[in-house]
Amino acid sequence: MASKKTARKRKKASAVATVGRSTMALPAELEDEFAKYVNRDRASAGAAGWPFIKTEGSTPFMMLGEQKIGDANGALDAIVLGAVRINTHYEGDFQPGVVTPPTCFALADLAWDAAEIDAKLAPPAELPTKASDACQGCRFNAFGSGRGNSKACKNSVRLALIPADSKDFTKADGLLLNVPPASMKLWSSYVQPWASIGRPIFSVLTQIEKMPAQRGSGFTLHFTPMGPIDDVESLRELAARVSSDAEAALTQPPMTGEASTSS
């Protein structure tokens, strides 16, 4: 009996390639069929290293870890590879420098049309701490549920970007930045004119500045066009970057490295 079991195990193992890259290639007839899965795996690996730019604090500087990012005045010239709507609800008061995962969140699908996002936004069905089955109608997503007349759930936009001075767009380190609720209209006003002429946001050099809010405390992020990118080869490199790890970075759950936005 023991010899038969051993034989079965050995027979089963023979269908699996032994460890070693030279012997781990797919059968040739499956390469094209499985290419999309390989691209997804490659994208998820690249997205894991995308750190968040911090915008908290009263200074005009944005931070990457403990280092200031941008020029001497705090302005950051960047290429925004993409953006996605995200709602996050954190329990307790905001604490500068303290990174905690949200108790509830919802990420828009990049394939959704703008007009359908509000109706479709919902936390993951399997999230045990979700506040509601959908963002529409959730008590935390209503004005007045937070401080003053604000929402307890922060409605924001997550940006994926690379520095504008990157020498190689395909290898430049990617960064993530959350546009706080107070800056949502500024982002919308910046994006819409480009969309209206059929130019994706990654085809424009964008300057991002952190400025004191005109009303009350806090800050807002301002977006200024620095000029279009018209080199065809560069645009194709950027488009390839968008469809690979940038999209994976945009849609990763906000569980680690992403602090609550205070403004």
Tell me briefly what this model is.
With 263 residues, the protein is of the alpha+beta class. The chain has helices spanning 2-13, 35-47, 117-120, 184-196, 232-250; strands at 62-64, 67-69, 76-89, 104-107, 153-163, 175-179, 204-212, 219-228.
Number of domains: 1
- Described by its quaternary structure, the protein is single chain
Q: What is the structural class? A: alpha+beta
Number of helices: 5
Write down the overall mean pLDDT.
Answer: 82
Question: What's the total number of strands?
Answer: 8
Share of residues in strands: 15-25%
- N- and C-termini, Cα separation: 69 Å
Helix content: 10-25%
Instruction: Spell out the helices and strands N to C.
Output: HHEEEEHEEHEEH
Global outline: globular
Poorly predicted runs are 1-23, 43-47
Q: Compute the CA-based radius of gyration.
A: 22 Å
What profile does the largest beta sheet have? 6 strands, antiparallel
